[in-house]
Amino acid sequence: MQLNRIILAPMEGVLDYYVRQILTEINQFDYCVTEFVRVTQHKLSNRTFYRLCPELYNEGKTLSGTPVRVQLLGQSPEWMAENAIKALELGSYGIDINFGCPAKTVVGSHGGAYLLQYPDQIFNIVTQVRTAIGAIPILSVKIRLGWDDKSRCYEIAEAIEQAGANEIIIHGRTKTDGYKAEKIDWSTIGKIKQKLTIPVIANGEIFSIADAQNCLTQSQTNDIMLGRGILNIPNLANKIRFKHSPLNWQEVMQLLLRYAMTPIEDAKPLYHSARIKQWLAYLRQNYPQASILIPEIRQLKSQNEICNFLKTKLDNKSN
């Protein structure tokens, strides 16, 4: 299969605005999806949307020009619809609905992947959002293959198409599968695609050019979404699309320093320390140098300490 689009995935607590900005500068993505905006029984404030999607201040695009789609997560059709309207009014590049998040806190409040057990409710939510926003805005839906098995995956996907979604993003595992590598099932994505007329975007376990090609072949799609893989190799999208070489460690360190230096309003005291350690944990899959840095970074607390540490490492490397 020929690759068409590459989309940057939403990853709650990981792919925030600042990481999106860095990654879209060094990769050619067709669009990004935000971390989920949690919808409860009310209309959210402008501030909530701007906090999770500051790109709305820039006509719904990253500073490098990549469109950004706000993702909504909730179980109330009425309030999901109300907040979809709001997101579009503020400038979102369409709407994405999350029925795939497997996190305990999310499914415990009957959101995300929890709703894969209830295709009728998924249909109701997507229908009301489509009706509320009208026919023109792009409406995408992200799912997994099921809750604890795949027996209803076709029913779920067909309900989403019939409800008026423009495209569907499918993570090739069930909620119970979590992120176990051996559970990835791109071929079932392909079987679902045969039953739909809307575009299908394949997601899950894409860490290399070979993974991307295998995913495209098995899922019979032309579009992929990258999540954890792009954190392992920060220019993975361009590596897949243009056969670029992966960034060298020096270049990766420069990205980490840039992220560490980001002034984040209302950031908790250990925010930068936690996020840099988190990114290093992903990077160590492909960069052994990251494993060496993690114990040293763990001892640092403040943003200044981390920035000075990374600067020293970069200076020593360049001398």
From TrEMBL:
<dbReference type="GO" id="GO:0000049">
    <property type="term" value="F:tRNA binding"/>
</dbReference>
<feature type="site" description="Interacts with tRNA; defines subfamily-specific binding signature">
    <location>
        <position position="38"/>
    </location>
</feature>
<dbReference type="InterPro" id="IPR001269">
    <property type="entry name" value="DUS_fam"/>
</dbReference>
<dbReference type="InterPro" id="IPR018517">
    <property type="entry name" value="tRNA_hU_synthase_CS"/>
</dbReference>
<feature type="site" description="Interacts with tRNA">
    <location>
        <position position="282"/>
    </location>
</feature>
<keyword id="KW-0285">Flavoprotein</keyword>
<keyword id="KW-0547">Nucleotide-binding</keyword>
<keyword id="KW-0521">NADP</keyword>
<keyword id="KW-0694">RNA-binding</keyword>
<feature type="binding site">
    <location>
        <position position="71"/>
    </location>
    <ligand>
        <name>FMN</name>
    </ligand>
</feature>
<comment type="function">
    <text>Catalyzes the synthesis of 5,6-dihydrouridine (D), a modified base found in the D-loop of most tRNAs, via the reduction of the C5-C6 double bond in target uridines. Specifically modifies U16 in tRNAs.</text>
</comment>
<feature type="domain" description="DUS-like FMN-binding">
    <location>
        <begin position="7"/>
        <end position="311"/>
    </location>
</feature>
<keyword id="KW-0288">FMN</keyword>
<keyword id="KW-0819">tRNA processing</keyword>
<dbReference type="InterPro" id="IPR035587">
    <property type="entry name" value="DUS-like_FMN-bd"/>
</dbReference>
<feature type="binding site">
    <location>
        <begin position="227"/>
        <end position="228"/>
    </location>
    <ligand>
        <name>FMN</name>
    </ligand>
</feature>
<dbReference type="GO" id="GO:0102262">
    <property type="term" value="F:tRNA-dihydrouridine16 synthase activity"/>
</dbReference>
<feature type="active site" description="Proton donor">
    <location>
        <position position="101"/>
    </location>
</feature>
<feature type="site" description="Interacts with tRNA">
    <location>
        <position position="98"/>
    </location>
</feature>
<feature type="site" description="Interacts with tRNA; defines subfamily-specific binding signature">
    <location>
        <position position="277"/>
    </location>
</feature>
<dbReference type="Pfam" id="PF01207">
    <property type="entry name" value="Dus"/>
</dbReference>
<feature type="binding site">
    <location>
        <position position="171"/>
    </location>
    <ligand>
        <name>FMN</name>
    </ligand>
</feature>
<feature type="binding site">
    <location>
        <begin position="203"/>
        <end position="205"/>
    </location>
    <ligand>
        <name>FMN</name>
    </ligand>
</feature>
<dbReference type="GO" id="GO:0010181">
    <property type="term" value="F:FMN binding"/>
</dbReference>
<feature type="binding site">
    <location>
        <position position="142"/>
    </location>
    <ligand>
        <name>FMN</name>
    </ligand>
</feature>
<feature type="site" description="Interacts with tRNA; defines subfamily-specific binding signature">
    <location>
        <position position="298"/>
    </location>
</feature>
<feature type="site" description="Interacts with tRNA; defines subfamily-specific binding signature">
    <location>
        <position position="275"/>
    </location>
</feature>
<comment type="similarity">
    <text>Belongs to the Dus family. DusC subfamily.</text>
</comment>
<protein>
    <recommendedName>
        <fullName>tRNA-dihydrouridine(16) synthase</fullName>
        <ecNumber>1.3.1.-</ecNumber>
    </recommendedName>
</protein>
<comment type="similarity">
    <text>Belongs to the dus family.</text>
</comment>
<dbReference type="InterPro" id="IPR032886">
    <property type="entry name" value="DusC"/>
</dbReference>
<dbReference type="GO" id="GO:0050660">
    <property type="term" value="F:flavin adenine dinucleotide binding"/>
</dbReference>
<dbReference type="InterPro" id="IPR042270">
    <property type="entry name" value="DusC_C"/>
</dbReference>
<keyword id="KW-0560">Oxidoreductase</keyword>
<feature type="site" description="Interacts with tRNA">
    <location>
        <position position="179"/>
    </location>
</feature>
<dbReference type="InterPro" id="IPR013785">
    <property type="entry name" value="Aldolase_TIM"/>
</dbReference>
<keyword id="KW-0820">tRNA-binding</keyword>
